[in-house]
Design goal:
Low-confidence stretches: none
CATH topology: Aminopeptidase
Order of helices and strands: EHHEEHHEHEHEE
Strand order of the largest sheet: 1-2-3-4-5-7-6
CATH architecture: 3-Layer(aba) Sandwich
Number of domains: 1
Strand content: 15-25%
Number of helices: 6
Shape: globular
Radius of gyration: 18 Å
Helix content: 25-40%
Distance between the termini: 17 Å
Oligomer: single chain
Structural class: alpha+beta
Length: about 220
């Protein structure tokens, strides 16, 4: 089901209003990643922990439902409330967040280990990871995909960041043939480490990065 006719609003997701947006944001993440229902229970505590990390920031993408769509149960778990929502028909269809990377973080240690395994000298790996923003999550609900929402979320999130670079990890995809890879390549993200397997996840991942600030990427493709 698509929301092609609905305008999209991108706005910050304040930490002190997390009780309004966290459940629909995690539901968006679970749906976009095709994880089994029930995975939310394991992710919510982790997202709450991330909110407290230095340099944390988040943005959401909101769509306003038509009178007919507002009756569909498909969107019930995406609803948000005032003051975050502008109306009772506005739902969350995308989320992006991240924070300043630090050596005591699990993701940082995973990347550092991967760089060493790939032959990077420890001193060079530490210097590379000295000053970066970790793009932790960027997800768009299937109902809102294909409208440039991911690019708007990403550029909003990275605007004005003080770090020298942004790093992320994303699942490997044959031929890089999905929207996430297309977005990252279009915005100039380059390979940092490929085909890495995180502890506890059998899928191969790629680490990508680029300097900050982002250039003017122009309007998102439709």
């Amino acid at each position: 089901m698509s929301l092609d006719a609905s305008p999209i609003r991108v706005a910050p997701l304040p930490a002190d209003l997390a009780h309004l947006w966290l459940d629909p944001a995690v539901h968006t993440y679970i749906t976009a990643m095709h994880y089994p229902r029930g995975s939310e229970a394991h992710r919510l505590p982790l997202w709450r922990d991330h909110i407290a990390r230095p340099g944390w920031s988040a943005f959401g993408a909101f769509a306003t439902l038509s009178a007919l769509d507002s009756l569909r149960p498909t969107y019930s778990r995406l609803r948000v409330r005032a003051p975050l929502a502008l109306s009772d028909r506005e739902i969350l269809v995308g989320v992006a967040y991240g924070y300043r990377g630090a050596p005591d973080q699990w993701w940082n240690r995973q990347l550092y280990s991967g760089l060493l395994q790939a032959g990077t000298r420890p001193a060079d790996a530490r210097e590379f990871m000295r000053d970066y923003f970790e793009l932790t999550e960027l997800h768009v609900h299937p109902a809102g995909q294909g409208r440039g929402v991911g690019q708007r979320l990403l550029t909003s999130l990275l605007s004005g960041r003080p770090e020298s670079k942004v790093l992320l990890s994303t699942p490997e995809v044959q031929g890089e043939a999905n929207r996430a890879w297309g977005l990252y390549r279009r915005l100039g993200f380059e390979d940092v480490l490929r085909h890495f397997t995180f502890a506890g996840d059998a899928r191969p991942f790629a680490f990508l990065g680029r300097p900050l600030p982002l250039p003017d990427a122009g309007p998102p493709p439709r």
